[in-house]
Design goal:
single chain; about 280 residues; alpha/beta; globular
Length: about 280
């Protein structure tokens, strides 16, 4: 029986988020909070592996109290248990501090039940770094496999698993020891609509919530802003692209206009090359 832990995060929906023109930072209040899409695929894959091999799926997240909504979404997908670490001490964490805090939470979960596999989404849509998963694996001293697009086999008795990792020109087949950590691509599966029984269970579910005082052997200097060497000096929205030029007239006239535009761009490019 496998115990699979999926690391998740609640993020602002970047499709509708706005930038604050005064502070040049993301206005998180302008967008609804959702389960990170890559993490939804991680949870779905964990549930599929549980159904195939037997076992339990736990999810873990770090965030403010409203992040329980993301955990309940994971229960809808089919996870069995949800854990959240929530404390002001975690606020302002970058990927280094986040991986440290989540590692401590995973250590506590493993005391409840030993963990065979950890699955993360490839990245979060509000950060796009893909660093937290490998950071957790490094701290736990287990193999990290990134860009996983398919789980081929898990053999707990012999202590190994086989996966396909996505490459630019194909994929590679990798065998690794258990326990290990996977960060998965969206193409690994499709997340179906939640079943009605799962939706009912999620609506009633209360996750396990831990503060910093509930975690063992915590070094507070590695948490939150204190443990975050990354500094974001400025964030701004990219300029809107200029509108296209509408060509008018007969076909031969439009061809002349296109040639004129191409030649103009070519001359500008040649001038820039000459200045270098």
């Amino acid at each position: 029986m496998l115990h699979i832990v999926a690391c998740i995060k609640q993020v602002p929906d970047t499709k509708v988020i706005k930038m604050n023109p005064k502070t040049n930072t993301m206005d998180r209040a302008s967008a609804p909070a959702i389960l990170n899409p890559y993490d939804a695929h991680a949870v779905e894959e964990a549930v599929r592996l549980k159904n195939k091999y037997g076992g339990t799926v736990s999810v873990v997240t770090m965030g403010p109290p409203p992040a329980v909504k993301a955990i309940r979404k994971c229960i809808e997908i089919g996870a069995d248990e949800g854990y959240m670490i929530s404390d002001r001490a975690f606020a302002g964490a970058d990927t280094l501090a986040t991986s440290y805090a989540l590692t401590k939470a995973i250590d506590k979960i493993s005391e409840i039940k030993p963990i065979d596999l950890i699955i993360c989404g490839k990245m979060t849509i509000d950060g796009d770094t893909g660093q937290v998963g490998p950071g957790i694996a490094r701290r736990l001293d287990i193999p990290p496999l990134t860009s996983v697009k398919k789980v081929v086999e898990i053999n707990k008795e012999e202590g190994f698993m086989v996966v396909h990792r996505k490459l630019e020109d194909g994929y590679e087949v990798v065998r690794t020891d258990l326990p290990c950590l996977l960060s998965v691509e969206k193409e690994i599966n499709e997340v179906p609509y939640s079943t009605f029984p799962n939706m009912l269970r999620a609506a009633r579910y209360n996750p396990h919530i831990w503060s910093v005082n509930d975690l063992a052997d915590i070094d507070r200097t590695q948490l939150g802003l204190k443990g975050s060497p990354t500094i974001v000096a400025k964030v701004w929205a990219p300029p809107k692209p200029e509108g296209g030029k509408l060509l008018e007239g007969e076909a031969h006239e439009q061809v002349k206009q296109i040639l004129s535009i191409v030649l103009e761009k070519k001359e500008l490019f040649a001038e820039k090359r000459g200045l270098e």
